[in-house]
Design a protein that fits this description.
alpha/beta, Alpha/beta-Hydrolases superfamily protein, AB_hydrolase_fold
């Protein structure tokens, strides 16, 4: 999922410098207590911040984000959640009758028109807001324009299509991400439109079969096929990585493999870190952060919208 702000901010005395390439930063997900969020947010409620639209991720519904909406309100950020129910996602089955689905060349429209309509309804509800989230954000921005959008912030969004020709990898989007990659504008971090992509490092995946030539505690690099887009998966032994991969790590790894072509990488339990970053954006990675509000726990398994995690990225909405 993701959220974005509308209405360009007032001129800056010192303009922001866009990153030369996809910048990356590691952050801890457990460094702040929830009480600190409440105390700090109480000082901000009198300010008038631009509103945000929250778009539910695949399989989620509007009510899953009620707590995140309240958390943002606590910081003085008005928020609207697009109206989506779980059963709505069955509408995507319409793509099955499109020959492009079976060829792996499916396009977002008209299959996802229902979702883009919900985005537009949320935008109208927010009145002065035009925003979208996830990889569909780029489709929405391409179709409806950028004039009212000043920030796109994505949370665990798979931005990149899986590499072609990888054994055992099937594009789960049936070509949708390939379309976005080829037809949507590239991310360029500027003072007028900022791209911030946040990834979670909740669990490291593992291959189904052990490779004796691979040291799981060493640094690895994943080449996603773009110059200057090589993402380092750093040594994470301090996060209690087991020496022998567990069944869970192997299971999660197979999910990661379908997204980025490699199983033994870090991710939020659903989306691998390397796929959640976008070349040209400000890319951040948070340790210990889970993918979805469903199945999360603010203390033991926080997700991107847990209060202690929001505290670490909220400044991108407030500045």
């Amino acid at each position: 999922m993701a959220l974005a702000l509308a209405l360009p901010p007032p001129p800056l005395s010192q303009p922001l410098k866009p990153p030369r390439k996809a910048l990356s930063c590691r952050c801890s997900a457990t460094s702040q207590q929830q009480e600190g969020v409440i105390a700090s947010s109480s000082q901000l409620t009198s300010l008038n911040y631009r509103p945000a639209v929250i778009l539910p991720g695949l399989g989620n519904n509007t009510s899953d984000y009620d707590k995140l909406k309240l958390t943002l309100n606590g910081y003085g950020v008005p928020a609207v959640v697009a109206k989506v129910s779980r059963i709505d996602w069955l509408r995507n089955a319409a793509g099955l009758v499109d020959p492009n689905y079976w060829r792996g060349t499916l396009r977002p429209r008209p299959v996802l028109d229902w979702y883009l309509k919900r985005v537009d309804e949320a935008v109208n509800e927010a009145k002065e807001l035009a925003a979208a989230g996830g990889w569909l954000a780029r489709v929405y921005m391409e179709e409806f324009g950028l004039s009212n959008i000043s920030l796109l912030l994505t949370l665990g969004t798979p931005h990149l299509p899986p590499p072609k020709g990888s054994p055992g990898v099937i594009d789960q989007t049936r070509g949708l991400l390939n379309y976005v990659e080829k037809n949507c504008s590239k991310a360029v971090y500027t003072p007028e439109l900022r791209y911030v992509c946040i990834a979670g490092r909740y669990i490291q995946g593992a291959r189904l079969l052990d490779d004796p030539n691979v040291n799981p505690s060493s640094a690895a690099y994943v080449d996603i096929g773009e110059p200057d887009s090589e993402v380092a998966i750093v040594n994470a032994a301090s996060l209690s990585t087991p020496v022998s991969p567990t069944f869970r790590a192997r299971f999660v790894g197979q999910g990661y493999k379908q997204v980025c072509g490699q199983a033994d990488v870090w991710g939020d339990g659903v989306v691998p870190e390397v796929a959640a970053h976008l070349e040209g954006a400000l890319n951040l990675s948070f340790d210990g952060v889970y993918h979805s509000p469903v199945g999360s726990d603010d203390d033991l398994r926080p997700w991107y919208g847990s209060p202690a995690i929001v505290e670490q990225w909220i400044h991108h909405l407030l500045n």
